[in-house]
Design goal:
By secondary structure, the chain is α/β, with parallel strands linked by helices. It folds into three domains: about 120 residues, 3-Layer(aba) Sandwich (D-Maltodextrin-Binding Protein, domain 2); about 80 residues, Periplasmic binding protein-like II (D-Maltodextrin-Binding Protein, domain 2, 3-Layer(aba) Sandwich), CATH 3.40.190; about 80 residues, 2-Layer Sandwich (Double Stranded RNA Binding Domain). The chain contains eleven helices and 13 strands. The chain is globular. This is Porphobilinogen deaminase.
C-alpha cells in the first residue's frame, strides 16, 4: 500500500473496560489490522470516573466527560496513541491538544424498548416503572406518557438488563446500537422511531481521538472515516454546542441524508416533559455546521433559552 505517511510498527488504543467499550475498541483494532497488517495493535483498558460512580445520574456528577478524561490522559502521556469513544459520550468541545481524527459509519441510531412483559410503550399500564439513563429519553417519555414513572438507570448494558430481569423495572430504554454490537438484538422488544424518541447527538457512531500533534495518525485513520455519518454528526453537534449541550440538558438531535440533502431534527425540553420545543431543517451536506447553529437559534426563538435557564437555576441549588 503506497502512502504519504509512515505506518507505525505499533498502535495502542485506549478504551474503557466495559464490554461494550471493549467491543468497540476491538472492532477498530480489527479494522486497523486489516488495513495495516504489519502493525501491532494493542488495547489499553481503563476504568474511568464515569464507570466508578454508579449511584448517581450522569447529569449530577459532571456529565459524559467523566468517561473520557482518563483516556485523554493516556494519549497525553504517550501510553496510548488513539482513543475510541461512543460519539454520544463525547463532549461537544474537544479539549485543546486533541482532535477527533475519524468518525465511523453509524450503527442503528435509534433507541430500543426492552421489556419482558410488554410489547411497546403504549401497552405499559399507568404507574409502570421505566428505567433510562438520560434526561433526553426521560423528558420525551414524560411528555408522551405522563402516566408512567420514569426512574434513573445506571450501569453497563448487562447490569441494566439484569435489573430489568430482576423486576425492578417494567421496561427499560437503551441505545439499539449497543445491544446490536453485543449480539443482544434478541432483547430488543421494539425499536423506537425518531418521532417517538429522538436519538442523542452522535448516537450509534464511534469517534477516534488522537493528539493534535499526530497528523500521521489522522492520515492513518482516514480509511475508517465515514463522510456521510460525519456530515450528520457535525450538524447534530453544532446544534448542541450552541445550546450548551451536556447530560444536564434534555435535548436531542438527529440528522439523516435523504436525496443527497441533510435533514436535521432537534428538540429541547424541561426534564418533566411539560415544556417542549422542536424544529427541523434541511440543506446541503456541506452546510451541516451552519444548519445546526441555525436550528439552535430557531429553538431559542421558540423559548429554549428560558427552558435552559430554568434548568441551570435548578442545578445551581
Amino acid at each position: 500500500m503506497s502512502s504519504s505517511f509512515s505506518i507505525p510498527k505499533r498502535i495502542t488504543i485506549a478504551s474503557r473496560e466495559s464490554l461494550l467499550a471493549m467491543w468497540q475498541a476491538k472492532h477498530i483494532r480489527q479494522c486497523l489490522i486489516q488495513l495495516y497488517p504489519q502493525t501491532e495493535v494493542n488495547i489499553l483498558g481503563m476504568t474511568t470516573q464515569g464507570d466508578q460512580i454508579l449511584d448517581k445520574s450522569l447529569s449530577k456528577i459532571g456529565g459524559k466527560g467523566l468517561f473520557i478524561k482518563e483516556l485523554e490522559q493516556a494519549l497525553e502521556d504517550g501510553r496510548a496513541d488513539i482513543a475510541v469513544h461512543s460519539m454520544k459520550d463525547m463532549p461537544m468541545n474537544v479539549p485543546e491538544g486533541f482532535i477527533l481524527a475519524a468518525i465511523t459509519e453509524r450503527e442503528d441510531p435509534r433507541d430500543a424498548f426492552v421489556s419482558n412483559q410488554y410489547k411497546n410503550l403504549e401497552e405499559l399500564p399507568s404507574g409502570s416503572i421505566v428505567g433510562t439513563s438520560s434526561l433526553r429519553r426521560e423528558s420525551q417519555l414524560r411528555a408522551q406518557f405522563p402516566h408512567l414513572n420514569v426512574n434513573p438507570l445506571r450501569g453497563n448494558v448487562q447490569t441494566r438488563l439484569r435489573k430489568l430481569d430482576e423486576g425492578q423495572y417494567a421496561a427499560i430504554i437503551l441505545a439499539a446500537a449497543g445491544l446490536k454490537r453485543l449480539e443482544l438484538s434478541d432483547r430488543i422488544t421494539a425499536l423506537l422511531n425518531p418521532e417517538q424518541s429522538l436519538p442523542a447527538v452522535g448516537q450509534g457512531a464511534l469517534g477516534i481521538e488522537c493528539r493534535h500533534d499526530r497528523p500521521d495518525l489522522v492520515a492513518l485513520l482516514q480509511p475508517l472515516h465515514h463522510h456521510k455519518t460525519a456530515y450528520c454528526v457535525q450538524a447534530e453537534r453544532a446544534m448542541s454546542r450552541v445550546l450548551g449541550g451536556s447530560c444536564q440538558i434534555p435535548l436531542g438531535a438527529f440528522a439523516e441524508i435523504e436525496n443527497n440533502q441533510l435533514k436535521l431534527r432537534g428538540f429541547v425540553a424541561s426534564p418533566d416533559g411539560t415544556q417542549f420545543v422542536r424544529d427541523a431543517v434541511s440543506g446541503n451536506l456541506e452546510n451541516g455546521e451552519e444548519m445546526g447553529k441555525n436550528m439552535a437559534q430557531n429553538l431559542i426563538a421558540q423559548g429554549a433559552d428560558k427552558i435552559l435557564a430554568a434548568i441551570e437555576t435548578q442545578h445551581s441549588w
